[in-house]
Protein: fructose-bisphosphatase
Organism: Chloropicon roscoffensis
Amino acid sequence: MVARGTRRGVVGRAAGGMRPASRMATRTPRRPRALPTFREYLTSSENSPNTGGLSSVLQTLSEACVEIQREVDLAPIRAAAGKGSNATSSSSSSRNASGDEQKELDLVANEILISRLRECPSVAIGASEENDEIIQMSEGTAGAEGKSYAVVFDPLDGSRNVECNIPVGSIFGVYEHDEALGVLRPGRDLVAAGYVLYSSSCLLVLTRGDGVDGFTLDREAGEFVLTHPDLRVRERGQIYSVNDARYWDWPQGLRDFIDAIRRGEGTGGGGQYSARYVCSLVADVHRTLLYGGLAMNPRSHLRLLYEGFPMAFVMEQAGGKGVNGKTNLLDMTPSGLHQKTPVFVGSSGDIAELLSYGDVVQTSTKTYSV
Ligand SMILES: O=P(O)(O)OC[C@H]1O[C@](O)(COP(=O)(O)O)[C@@H](O)[C@@H]1O
Protein backbone atom coordinates (compact mmCIF):
# COMPACT_ATOMS: atom_id res chain seq x y z
CA MET A 1 0.00 0.00 0.00
CA VAL A 2 2.75 2.36 0.91
CA ALA A 3 4.57 1.68 -2.33
CA ARG A 4 1.46 2.30 -4.42
CA GLY A 5 0.77 5.54 -2.60
CA THR A 6 4.35 6.66 -3.12
CA ARG A 7 4.17 5.79 -6.79
CA ARG A 8 0.94 7.76 -7.26
CA GLY A 9 2.62 10.69 -5.53
CA VAL A 10 5.52 10.61 -7.95
CA VAL A 11 3.22 10.37 -10.98
CA GLY A 12 1.13 13.23 -9.62
CA ARG A 13 4.17 15.46 -9.22
CA ALA A 14 5.37 14.63 -12.70
CA ALA A 15 2.03 15.61 -14.15
CA GLY A 16 1.91 18.80 -12.14
CA GLY A 17 5.52 19.83 -12.77
CA MET A 18 8.49 19.89 -10.40
CA ARG A 19 8.29 21.01 -6.80
CA PRO A 20 9.97 24.34 -6.03
CA ALA A 21 13.59 23.88 -5.01
CA SER A 22 12.96 25.27 -1.52
CA ARG A 23 10.36 22.59 -0.76
CA MET A 24 12.61 19.81 -2.12
CA ALA A 25 15.40 20.98 0.13
CA THR A 26 13.26 20.75 3.24
CA ARG A 27 12.56 17.07 2.44
CA THR A 28 16.24 16.09 2.42
CA PRO A 29 16.66 13.65 5.32
CA ARG A 30 19.07 15.10 7.85
CA ARG A 31 20.96 13.44 10.65
CA PRO A 32 19.45 14.14 14.06
CA ARG A 33 21.84 16.45 15.84
CA ALA A 34 21.99 14.26 18.92
CA LEU A 35 24.17 11.52 17.37
CA PRO A 36 27.82 11.98 18.40
CA THR A 37 30.38 12.12 15.64
CA PHE A 38 33.29 9.67 15.74
CA ARG A 39 35.59 12.50 16.83
CA GLU A 40 33.21 13.49 19.64
CA TYR A 41 32.98 9.86 20.72
CA LEU A 42 36.76 9.52 20.80
CA THR A 43 37.39 12.72 22.66
CA SER A 44 34.59 12.57 25.21
CA SER A 45 36.18 11.96 28.58
CA GLU A 46 33.63 9.27 29.35
CA ASN A 47 34.78 7.18 26.37
CA SER A 48 38.42 8.05 26.24
CA PRO A 49 40.16 8.55 29.52
CA ASN A 50 43.75 9.65 28.96
CA THR A 51 44.16 8.10 25.51
CA GLY A 52 44.75 11.14 23.29
CA GLY A 53 47.38 9.37 21.17
CA LEU A 54 45.18 6.36 20.50
CA SER A 55 42.24 8.64 19.67
CA SER A 56 44.32 10.48 17.08
CA VAL A 57 45.32 7.14 15.50
CA LEU A 58 41.69 6.03 15.32
CA GLN A 59 40.53 9.38 13.98
CA THR A 60 43.22 9.16 11.28
CA LEU A 61 42.10 5.64 10.35
CA SER A 62 38.49 6.79 10.08
CA GLU A 63 39.43 9.71 7.82
CA ALA A 64 41.54 7.48 5.60
CA CYS A 65 38.58 5.11 5.24
CA VAL A 66 36.31 7.98 4.21
CA GLU A 67 38.80 8.59 1.37
CA ILE A 68 38.86 4.89 0.51
CA GLN A 69 35.06 4.86 0.42
CA ARG A 70 35.20 7.58 -2.21
CA GLU A 71 37.72 5.61 -4.27
CA VAL A 72 35.52 2.51 -4.06
CA ASP A 73 32.53 4.58 -5.21
CA LEU A 74 34.42 6.12 -8.10
CA ALA A 75 36.30 3.03 -9.27
CA PRO A 76 33.87 2.08 -12.07
CA ILE A 77 33.77 5.67 -13.33
CA ARG A 78 37.55 5.97 -13.31
CA ALA A 79 37.85 2.63 -15.08
CA ALA A 80 35.27 3.57 -17.72
CA ALA A 81 36.97 6.91 -18.24
CA GLY A 82 40.27 5.14 -18.79
CA LYS A 83 41.95 6.42 -15.65
CA GLY A 84 43.01 3.70 -13.26
CA SER A 85 42.54 1.24 -16.06
CA ASN A 86 42.34 -1.93 -13.99
CA ALA A 87 40.61 -0.51 -10.91
CA THR A 88 37.66 -2.72 -11.66
CA SER A 89 39.09 -5.11 -14.16
CA SER A 90 40.09 -8.63 -13.32
CA SER A 91 43.60 -8.30 -14.71
CA SER A 92 46.25 -8.22 -12.03
CA SER A 93 48.73 -5.40 -11.75
CA SER A 94 51.03 -7.23 -9.35
CA ARG A 95 51.18 -9.73 -6.51
CA ASN A 96 51.66 -9.04 -2.82
CA ALA A 97 53.87 -10.78 -0.25
CA SER A 98 51.35 -13.60 0.14
CA GLY A 99 51.21 -14.16 -3.61
CA ASP A 100 47.73 -12.66 -3.96
CA GLU A 101 46.69 -10.65 -6.94
CA GLN A 102 46.74 -6.93 -6.18
CA LYS A 103 44.10 -4.83 -7.88
CA GLU A 104 44.78 -1.19 -8.46
CA LEU A 105 42.20 -0.35 -5.82
CA ASP A 106 44.11 -2.45 -3.26
CA LEU A 107 47.14 -0.29 -3.94
CA VAL A 108 45.19 2.98 -3.88
CA ALA A 109 43.62 2.06 -0.51
CA ASN A 110 47.05 1.05 0.80
CA GLU A 111 48.58 4.35 -0.31
CA ILE A 112 45.80 6.33 1.36
CA LEU A 113 46.25 4.52 4.66
CA ILE A 114 50.03 4.75 4.66
CA SER A 115 50.16 8.42 3.75
CA ARG A 116 47.47 9.35 6.30
CA LEU A 117 49.07 7.28 9.08
CA ARG A 118 52.45 8.85 8.31
CA GLU A 119 50.91 12.23 9.05
CA CYS A 120 49.81 11.05 12.48
CA PRO A 121 52.67 11.65 14.92
CA SER A 122 51.51 8.91 17.29
CA VAL A 123 52.02 6.10 14.73
CA ALA A 124 55.51 4.60 14.83
CA ILE A 125 55.20 1.59 12.49
CA GLY A 126 52.66 -0.22 10.37
CA ALA A 127 52.14 -3.56 8.66
CA SER A 128 49.92 -3.97 5.61
CA GLU A 129 48.74 -6.91 3.56
CA GLU A 130 50.20 -5.14 0.55
CA ASN A 131 53.74 -4.57 1.90
CA ASP A 132 56.36 -7.28 2.38
CA GLU A 133 58.04 -5.59 5.33
CA ILE A 134 57.25 -3.37 8.30
CA ILE A 135 56.42 0.20 7.25
CA GLN A 136 58.21 2.99 9.09
CA MET A 137 55.69 5.72 9.80
CA SER A 138 56.54 8.88 11.73
CA GLU A 139 58.92 9.22 14.63
CA GLY A 140 56.12 7.71 16.71
CA THR A 141 56.16 10.67 19.06
CA ALA A 142 54.77 9.54 22.37
CA GLY A 143 51.51 11.35 23.18
CA ALA A 144 50.64 12.94 26.51
CA GLU A 145 50.13 9.45 27.96
CA GLY A 146 53.68 8.48 26.88
CA LYS A 147 52.68 6.00 24.17
CA SER A 148 53.05 5.60 20.44
CA TYR A 149 51.35 2.96 18.29
CA ALA A 150 51.77 0.25 15.66
CA VAL A 151 48.93 -0.19 13.17
CA VAL A 152 48.30 -3.39 11.20
CA PHE A 153 45.81 -3.37 8.34
CA ASP A 154 44.29 -4.99 5.31
CA PRO A 155 43.54 -1.89 3.21
CA LEU A 156 40.87 -3.46 0.99
CA ASP A 157 39.63 -6.91 1.86
CA GLY A 158 37.51 -8.78 -0.67
CA SER A 159 38.72 -6.66 -3.57
CA ARG A 160 37.94 -9.47 -5.99
CA ASN A 161 34.31 -8.44 -5.41
CA VAL A 162 34.70 -4.84 -6.52
CA GLU A 163 34.03 -5.60 -10.15
CA CYS A 164 30.46 -6.63 -9.41
CA ASN A 165 29.71 -4.03 -6.72
CA ILE A 166 29.68 -6.48 -3.83
CA PRO A 167 30.66 -4.93 -0.47
CA VAL A 168 34.34 -4.76 0.45
CA GLY A 169 36.07 -3.58 3.61
CA SER A 170 39.17 -2.36 5.43
CA ILE A 171 40.40 -4.12 8.58
CA PHE A 172 42.74 -2.71 11.23
CA GLY A 173 44.35 -3.48 14.56
CA VAL A 174 46.35 -1.17 16.86
CA TYR A 175 49.13 -2.12 19.31
CA GLU A 176 51.02 0.09 21.69
CA HIS A 177 54.40 0.42 20.03
CA ASP A 178 57.18 -1.64 21.54
CA GLU A 179 60.48 -1.37 19.72
CA ALA A 180 61.59 -4.84 20.78
CA LEU A 181 58.34 -6.69 20.06
CA GLY A 182 57.25 -4.98 16.82
CA VAL A 183 53.93 -6.46 15.68
CA LEU A 184 54.70 -10.18 15.97
CA ARG A 185 52.82 -10.50 19.22
CA PRO A 186 49.58 -12.09 20.40
CA GLY A 187 46.24 -10.68 19.40
CA ARG A 188 45.55 -10.20 23.11
CA ASP A 189 48.02 -7.29 23.06
CA LEU A 190 45.81 -5.26 20.71
CA VAL A 191 44.50 -2.05 22.27
CA ALA A 192 42.00 -1.38 19.48
CA ALA A 193 40.71 -3.07 16.34
CA GLY A 194 37.89 -2.85 13.89
CA TYR A 195 36.77 -2.67 10.32
CA VAL A 196 35.02 -0.46 7.82
CA LEU A 197 32.37 -1.98 5.55
CA TYR A 198 31.88 -0.19 2.21
CA SER A 199 28.32 -1.14 1.35
CA SER A 200 24.84 0.36 0.93
CA SER A 201 25.95 2.51 3.82
CA CYS A 202 29.51 2.76 5.04
CA LEU A 203 30.00 1.42 8.57
CA LEU A 204 32.90 1.57 10.98
CA VAL A 205 32.96 -0.99 13.80
CA LEU A 206 35.43 -0.41 16.62
CA THR A 207 36.59 -1.98 19.84
CA ARG A 208 39.10 -0.53 22.27
CA GLY A 209 38.77 -3.51 24.58
CA ASP A 210 35.71 -2.15 26.31
CA GLY A 211 32.87 -3.39 24.12
CA VAL A 212 32.04 -2.74 20.48
CA ASP A 213 30.43 0.32 18.90
CA GLY A 214 29.30 0.92 15.32
CA PHE A 215 29.31 4.16 13.33
CA THR A 216 27.70 5.07 10.03
CA LEU A 217 29.30 7.47 7.56
CA ASP A 218 27.21 10.57 7.01
CA ARG A 219 28.35 10.98 3.42
CA GLU A 220 27.21 14.59 3.22
CA ALA A 221 29.15 15.62 6.31
CA GLY A 222 32.06 13.27 5.51
CA GLU A 223 32.25 11.86 9.03
CA PHE A 224 31.10 8.81 10.95
CA VAL A 225 28.38 9.10 13.59
CA LEU A 226 27.53 6.68 16.38
CA THR A 227 24.58 4.58 15.20
CA HIS A 228 25.19 1.16 16.80
CA PRO A 229 26.33 1.60 20.40
CA ASP A 230 27.28 -1.47 22.42
CA LEU A 231 26.95 -4.17 19.76
CA ARG A 232 26.50 -7.66 21.20
CA VAL A 233 26.50 -10.94 19.31
CA ARG A 234 23.86 -13.40 20.42
CA GLU A 235 24.86 -16.59 22.22
CA ARG A 236 23.53 -18.76 19.37
CA GLY A 237 22.59 -17.85 15.83
CA GLN A 238 21.00 -19.64 12.92
CA ILE A 239 23.23 -18.63 10.02
CA TYR A 240 26.50 -20.21 8.87
CA SER A 241 28.84 -18.55 6.43
CA VAL A 242 31.45 -20.55 4.54
CA ASN A 243 32.42 -21.36 0.97
CA ASP A 244 30.74 -24.75 1.09
CA ALA A 245 31.50 -25.64 -2.50
CA ARG A 246 34.68 -26.83 -0.77
CA TYR A 247 32.69 -29.44 1.19
CA TRP A 248 34.57 -32.37 -0.33
CA ASP A 249 37.92 -30.83 0.63
CA TRP A 250 36.89 -30.53 4.29
CA PRO A 251 37.75 -32.93 7.11
CA GLN A 252 34.95 -35.17 8.38
CA GLY A 253 34.44 -33.10 11.54
CA LEU A 254 33.54 -29.95 9.64
CA ARG A 255 31.29 -31.85 7.22
CA ASP A 256 29.45 -33.47 10.12
CA PHE A 257 28.98 -30.14 11.90
CA ILE A 258 27.65 -28.37 8.80
CA ASP A 259 25.38 -31.36 7.99
CA ALA A 260 23.98 -31.26 11.53
CA ILE A 261 23.13 -27.55 11.54
CA ARG A 262 21.71 -27.74 8.00
CA ARG A 263 19.37 -30.51 9.15
CA GLY A 264 18.38 -28.61 12.28
CA GLU A 265 20.17 -31.18 14.44
CA GLY A 266 22.56 -28.76 16.13
CA THR A 267 22.51 -28.39 19.88
CA GLY A 268 21.27 -24.78 19.79
CA GLY A 269 17.66 -25.87 19.51
CA GLY A 270 16.97 -23.16 16.93
CA GLY A 271 16.14 -25.45 14.02
CA GLN A 272 17.69 -25.54 10.57
CA TYR A 273 20.43 -23.04 9.82
CA SER A 274 20.55 -20.88 6.70
CA ALA A 275 23.68 -20.26 4.61
CA ARG A 276 24.99 -16.81 3.66
CA TYR A 277 28.38 -16.25 2.04
CA VAL A 278 29.41 -12.95 0.48
CA CYS A 279 33.11 -13.89 0.19
CA SER A 280 34.09 -10.52 1.67
CA LEU A 281 35.35 -11.19 5.17
CA VAL A 282 34.16 -7.85 6.53
CA ALA A 283 30.64 -8.35 5.19
CA ASP A 284 30.44 -11.94 6.43
CA VAL A 285 31.75 -11.04 9.88
CA HIS A 286 29.53 -7.98 10.17
CA ARG A 287 26.40 -9.96 9.38
CA THR A 288 27.48 -12.57 11.91
CA LEU A 289 28.01 -9.86 14.53
CA LEU A 290 24.49 -8.56 13.96
CA TYR A 291 22.56 -11.80 13.45
CA GLY A 292 24.67 -14.43 15.21
CA GLY A 293 25.92 -17.79 13.95
CA LEU A 294 29.37 -18.39 12.45
CA ALA A 295 31.60 -17.00 9.71
CA MET A 296 34.33 -19.43 8.69
CA ASN A 297 37.25 -19.91 6.39
CA PRO A 298 38.48 -23.38 7.36
CA ARG A 299 41.56 -23.37 5.13
CA SER A 300 44.71 -21.49 6.01
CA HIS A 301 43.93 -18.51 3.79
CA LEU A 302 43.22 -15.44 5.93
CA ARG A 303 46.06 -13.49 7.53
CA LEU A 304 46.38 -13.86 11.28
CA LEU A 305 47.78 -10.41 12.08
CA TYR A 306 45.48 -8.07 10.21
CA GLU A 307 42.45 -10.25 9.45
CA GLY A 308 42.13 -12.97 12.10
CA PHE A 309 43.17 -10.90 15.15
CA PRO A 310 40.99 -7.82 14.56
CA MET A 311 37.92 -9.91 13.76
CA ALA A 312 38.46 -12.15 16.79
CA PHE A 313 38.99 -9.12 19.05
CA VAL A 314 35.79 -7.45 17.84
CA MET A 315 33.83 -10.69 18.17
CA GLU A 316 35.15 -11.43 21.67
CA GLN A 317 34.43 -7.90 22.83
CA ALA A 318 30.86 -8.34 21.56
CA GLY A 319 30.48 -11.54 23.60
CA GLY A 320 31.42 -14.01 20.85
CA LYS A 321 34.58 -15.89 19.99
CA GLY A 322 37.24 -16.37 17.33
CA VAL A 323 39.26 -19.59 16.95
CA ASN A 324 41.61 -21.20 14.43
CA GLY A 325 39.75 -24.50 14.71
CA LYS A 326 41.67 -25.54 17.80
CA THR A 327 42.68 -22.55 19.92
CA ASN A 328 41.59 -19.00 20.51
CA LEU A 329 42.96 -16.82 17.72
CA LEU A 330 43.86 -14.04 20.16
CA ASP A 331 46.24 -16.35 22.04
CA MET A 332 48.32 -17.06 18.94
CA THR A 333 51.58 -15.27 18.13
CA PRO A 334 52.32 -14.74 14.44
CA SER A 335 55.62 -16.11 13.19
CA GLY A 336 55.61 -13.65 10.27
CA LEU A 337 53.73 -10.57 9.11
CA HIS A 338 51.72 -12.50 6.57
CA GLN A 339 51.15 -15.78 8.40
CA LYS A 340 47.93 -17.40 7.29
CA THR A 341 45.39 -19.18 9.45
CA PRO A 342 41.98 -20.81 9.36
CA VAL A 343 39.39 -18.48 10.92
CA PHE A 344 36.10 -19.30 12.66
CA VAL A 345 34.32 -16.38 14.39
CA GLY A 346 30.85 -15.89 15.77
CA SER A 347 28.42 -16.73 18.53
CA SER A 348 30.17 -18.44 21.42
CA GLY A 349 27.63 -21.30 21.58
CA ASP A 350 28.03 -22.00 17.86
CA ILE A 351 31.83 -21.91 18.07
CA ALA A 352 31.75 -24.30 21.06
CA GLU A 353 29.56 -26.73 19.14
CA LEU A 354 31.82 -26.51 16.08
CA LEU A 355 34.88 -27.35 18.19
CA SER A 356 33.09 -30.32 19.74
CA TYR A 357 33.33 -31.98 16.29
CA GLY A 358 37.11 -32.21 16.64
CA ASP A 359 38.82 -31.97 13.28
CA VAL A 360 37.37 -28.92 11.50
CA VAL A 361 40.45 -27.46 9.78
CA GLN A 362 40.87 -28.01 6.05
CA THR A 363 44.38 -29.30 5.43
CA SER A 364 44.01 -29.85 1.68
CA THR A 365 46.28 -27.32 0.02
CA LYS A 366 44.37 -27.37 -3.22
CA THR A 367 44.31 -24.01 -5.03
CA TYR A 368 41.06 -22.73 -6.41
CA SER A 369 40.76 -20.79 -9.62
CA VAL A 370 37.84 -18.65 -8.33
O1 LIG B 1 38.44 -18.32 -1.51
P1 LIG B 1 37.88 -18.44 -0.14
O2 LIG B 1 38.54 -19.51 0.65
O3 LIG B 1 36.38 -18.60 -0.13
O4 LIG B 1 38.27 -17.09 0.63
C1 LIG B 1 37.49 -15.93 0.58
C2 LIG B 1 38.01 -14.98 1.57
O5 LIG B 1 39.17 -14.40 1.03
C3 LIG B 1 39.06 -13.01 1.08
O6 LIG B 1 38.68 -12.55 -0.19
C4 LIG B 1 40.34 -12.40 1.53
O7 LIG B 1 41.32 -12.72 0.61
P2 LIG B 1 42.43 -11.66 0.35
O8 LIG B 1 42.93 -11.23 1.71
O9 LIG B 1 43.43 -12.41 -0.44
O10 LIG B 1 41.76 -10.52 -0.37
C5 LIG B 1 37.97 -12.72 2.08
O11 LIG B 1 37.37 -11.49 1.92
C6 LIG B 1 37.05 -13.88 1.90
O12 LIG B 1 36.37 -14.12 3.07
Q: What stands out?
A: The domain at 239-355 is CATH 3.40.190.80 (D-Maltodextrin-Binding Protein; domain 2). Residues 1-24, 87-92 have pLDDT under 50 and may be disordered.
